[in-house]
């Protein structure tokens, strides 16, 4: 169990930030703070507890771990390191749990003594501010990487669904095409067995090409009615399997009205074999088109991933179309958008100029804003609106949702590092801070306005 230790003036010089301080400063530190012993694995600070003291490692070490993170991930303090709450930090609550590593002794200085510390040793305060800045920079880099991995994890779940659908369609179409290709030769032999003249063959083969645009899909009831109608007509032409032939003919836009003039030019004994061969050929052609379209969908998804991650280009800045990054991010969120039945509106002004930027970083901004919007939306019936237009010398990008809105109090702090309204372990409070920093590095600004039922984040990016 943690317990206080007697003051020992010989241990403070082992702390790097305290080295070289005058003896009177060290004496004051021992009087204002205290030494505390922790057993191996003992909790030093709880996640969510008030940030109330500076911690300096005299012996042993500490391991800070975010809730829900694996034990191999975290932040370590070794002998001589300073952590916890530091002067001028805006940290209000400890964001993670801190555990003792081995037999540990810490020097702890309460927050209440920070004001006096500024008078006793401005030099030490400056050192601690330097430590805080270095630590914050390292933490932001780590969190930025973790946020990218977290976003990738969420996107990959939806992406697997997006890839699975066309892959499954290709598999089904390939199986059906194999069956169709086995049937077509037999139907061709049956057609030739009727000894049709050349002009008869020309009449039927002229229909064996799919139109550039297939008919608009019908409802299940409408499709059934039309198939029944065509099947009945085919049977009047001597086709005993009219119900089996009708679907593929209708898919190609060939109904009874379109086929009647063709039938008039065919000998009666040729019609059953001719329509059977035509149906089989059109089935194979349609399956081939389905495979091609599904393959293009997979290629599009792969291109979206490459555009989103920018992994096929160098990491420098270049002229880029903001809408391309927005669309690639939206495509990767397609599954999440469908799950919440989100009505998506893209309002892009025509002839938008390019901006000079780093695509991967800006895509991280779009990911953060879209992800936050999805989290804020109702379970179903969400509305997401993306607008891009030019205003003066800037390109203005807005992401708007119909969620519950953000209170005035939260809105005032939402861009502050570590500020989050999400439960512990679900948000670091750095996402919007990182997004704003990325926008600022591009010479722009990120702002938010909100009211019940409408929250809008707006990014201004300079042109050039």
The 3D shape can be described as elongated
Strand order of the largest sheet: 1-2-9-4-7
Quaternary state reads single chain
Largest sheet: 5 strands, antiparallel
Order of helices and strands: EHEEEEEEEEHHHHHHHEHHEEHEEHHEE
If you compute it from the alpha carbons, what radius of gyration comes out, rounded to the nearest whole angstrom? 34 Å
* Low-pLDDT segments, ≥5 res: 423-429
Topology:
Blueprint lengths: L2 E3 L17 H10 L1 E5 L4 E3 L7 E7 L2 E4 L9 E3 L4 E3 L12 E4 L3 E7 L3 H7 L1 H71 L5 H8 L14 H17 L5 H10 L4 H9 L6 H39 L8 E3 L1 H11 L1 H6 L3 E6 L6 E3 L1 H18 L6 E9 L2 E8 L6 H6 L17 H11 L3 E7 L2 E9 L2
Parallel strand pairs: 11-13
Antiparallel strand pairs: 1-2, 2-9, 3-8, 4-7, 4-9, 5-6, 5-8, 10-12, 13-14, 14-16, 15-16
Helix pairs in contact: 2-3, 3-8, 5-6, 6-8, 8-9, 9-11, 11-13
Characterization of the model:
The structure is a single chain. This protein has 464 residues and is of the alpha+beta class. It has three domains: 118 residues, Jelly Rolls (Sandwich); 140 residues, no CATH class; 147 residues, Heat Shock Protein 90 (2-Layer Sandwich), CATH 3.30.565.10. 48% of the residues lie in helices and 18% in strands. The chain has 13 helices and 16 strands. A five-stranded antiparallel β-sheet has the order 1-2-9-4-7. Strands 11-13-14-16-15 form a five-stranded mixed β-sheet. β13 and β14 form a beta hairpin. α6 packs across α8. The longest helix has 71 residues. InterPro entries: cNMP-bd_dom, cNMP-bd_dom_sf, HATPase_C_sf, HATPase_dom, His_kinase_dom, HisK_dim/P_dom, HisK_dim/P_sf, RmlC-like_jellyroll. Its EC number is 2.7.13.3. This is histidine kinase. It is an enzyme of class 2 (transferase).
């Amino acid at each position: 169990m943690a317990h206080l230790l007697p003051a020992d003036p010989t241990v403070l010089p082992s702390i790097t930030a305290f080295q070289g301080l005058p003896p009177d400063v060290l004496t004051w530190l021992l009087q204002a703070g205290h030494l505390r012993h922790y057993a191996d694995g003992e909790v030093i600070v709880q996640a969510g507890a008030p940030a109330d003291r500076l911690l300096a490692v005299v012996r042993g070490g500490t391991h800070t771990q975010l809730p829900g993170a694996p034990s191999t991930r975290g932040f370590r303090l070794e002998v001589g390191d300073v952590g916890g709450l530091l002067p001028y930090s805006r940290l209000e609550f400890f964001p993670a749990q801190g555990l003792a590593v081995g037999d540990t002794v810490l020097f702890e200085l309460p927050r209440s003594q920070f004001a006096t510390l500024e008078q006793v040793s401005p030099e030490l305060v400056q050192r601690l501010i330097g430590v805080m800045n270095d630590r914050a920079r390292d933490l932001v880099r780590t969190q930025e990487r973790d946020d990218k991995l977290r976003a990738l994890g969420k996107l990959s779940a939806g992406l697997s669904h997006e890839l699975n659908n066309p892959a499954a369609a290709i598999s089904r179409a390939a199986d059906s095409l194999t069956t169709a290709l086995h049937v077509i030769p037999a139907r061709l032999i049956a057609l030739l067995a009727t000894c049709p003249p050349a002009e008869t063959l020309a009449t039927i083969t002229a229909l064996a090409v799919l139109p550039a645009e297939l008919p608009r899909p019908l409802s299940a009831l409408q499709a059934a009615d039309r198939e029944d109608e065509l099947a009945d007509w085919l049977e009047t032409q001597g086709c005993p399997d009219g119900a089996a032939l009708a679907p593929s003919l209708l898919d190609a836009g060939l109904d009874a009205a379109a086929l009647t003039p063709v039938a008039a030019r065919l000998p009666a004994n040729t019609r059953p074999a001719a329509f059977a061969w035509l149906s089989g050929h059109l089935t194979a052609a349609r399956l081939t088109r389905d495979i091609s379209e599904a393959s293009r969908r997979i290629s599009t998804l792969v291109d979206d991933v490459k555009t989103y991650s920018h992994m096929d280009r160098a990491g420098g800045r270049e002229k880029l179309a903001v809408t391309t990054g927005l669309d690639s991010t939206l495509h990767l969120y397609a599954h999440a958008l469908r799950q919440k039945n989100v009505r998506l509106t893209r309002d892009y002004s025509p002839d938008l100029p390019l901006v000079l930027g780093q695509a991967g970083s800006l895509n991280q901004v779009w990911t953060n804003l879209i992800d936050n919007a999805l989290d804020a939306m109702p379970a179903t019936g969400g509305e997401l609106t993306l607008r891009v237009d030019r205003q003066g010398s800037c390109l203005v990008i807005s992401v708007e949702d119909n969620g519950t809105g953000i209170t005035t109090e939260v809105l005032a702090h939402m861009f502050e590092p570590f500020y989050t309204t999400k439960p512990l372990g679900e948000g670091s409070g750095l996402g919007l801070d990182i997004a704003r920093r990325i926008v600022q590095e591009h010479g722009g600004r990120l702002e938010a306005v909100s009211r019940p039922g409408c929250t809008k984040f707006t990014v201004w990016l300079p042109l050039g």
